[in-house]
Design a protein that fits this description.
With about 425 residues, this protein is α/β, with parallel strands linked by helices. Among the domains are: about 140 residues, FAD/NAD(P)-binding domain (3-Layer(bba) Sandwich); about 150 residues, FAD/NAD(P)-binding domain. Helix content is about 30%, strand content about 25%. It contains 10 helices and 27 strands. Helix 7 links the parallel strand 12 and strand 13. Helix 1 runs parallel beside helix 8 and helix 4 runs antiparallel to helix 5. The protein is elongated and about 75 Å long. The two termini are about 40 Å apart. The C terminus is likely disordered.
Amino acid sequence: MVKRPKVIVIGAGFGGLYAARALANAPVDVTVLDRTNHHVFQPLLYQVATAMLAPTDIAAPVRWLLRKQRNTEVLVGDVTAISVDERRVRCADGLELDYDFLIVAAGARHSYFGHPEWEHDAPGLKSVEDAIELRRRWLTAFERAERAALEGDAAERDANLTFAIIGGGPTGVELAGMLPTIARMALPPDFRHIDTSRARIVLLEGGARLLPAFPEDLSEHARRDLEALGVEVRTSTLVTNLGRDFVEAAGERIEARTIFWAAGNAASPLGRMLGAPLDRSGRVQVRDDLSVDGHPEVFVVGDTAVLRSHGAPVPAVAPAAMQSGRAAARNVLHAMRGEGREPFRYWNKGDLATIGRYKAVGVLAGRHLTGVFAWWTWLLVHIMYLAGFRNRLSVLVEWGYAFFTYERGARLITARSTDPDASPPARPRR
């Protein structure tokens, strides 16, 4: 009996999931390893953070997603070592697995640009745990403002009603657009001593404009839409310091009890174990076929890799992770057959970012979209890519409910502590 090649896929995000699916009917044995048992639709994490959706609306068990692939097994494990010379992967619990081919799709975490201590006071948004923590802080701020108003402390009330978002990419813009809508339309009837519509949202971006990956006219359109919602947009404003209840930027101190980070990414540390060159963000420099120099059996995809197509850099977005995962799987099959490998080619289907009701910007097929049409396009695209019929149905129901009532169905403070100084829950690396 001929031994079937073993393929290990590390990470069950977009890159890992699509790589595993591409090997569904191949004569290989696939093992998918991840620290969690679920796949998360990251583009909608901000809606969990702002209480629009529940975590189960945008997540699905990896085993269920791959249940029909008879050649694939799923294991929950925290990878702590990769030996490319021995072709072996080790996990924290002692599990060791040998491979013939390895696909690393471990994703990325937040980058605080040399200030890791800032994470406690300004959490980012990459996982379900992150989203729940942001939701806790966001909702708790109003509870604290209510108490401060009851006690007659106007300064503390205003500080709790001030929210700072650092980073003007898609995550920061979408968060900034969602928060004032909730504060002004959904929350006012629920509180007796504060006017939640007075919530102050400050968006700080170190670059010259918002959404730097978008064309300039769309960046400006997004800025105008945010300002129309009452968001204070400050570009060319680098954060120099922050703490539990303040942000310092451009020589100004902003008293804010709630700070969200959406400014930068750092690749998973697993990339450092492959012995390949890295860029400043820790991403692995890969060959055209997504393999690692000196180890053609090792592939790196998604946010863990420096992806290039036709000589140009590829953005760190979900479609790029999906396409690179599938491309790596195809090259595994080419290698097994002794065929020449194909270079990775990225097909940019477009970019979309939503700002609020009937407010969005996007680029599709070279056309610049704004307003209602861009907003509906964003809705349809995100529903289409959600994993599982149940998720699509539940998200549609929640969106419809919120559209007609402005209510949010997941406004629960689920953490035991409401003290923002308490340590946030442990977050996965990827």
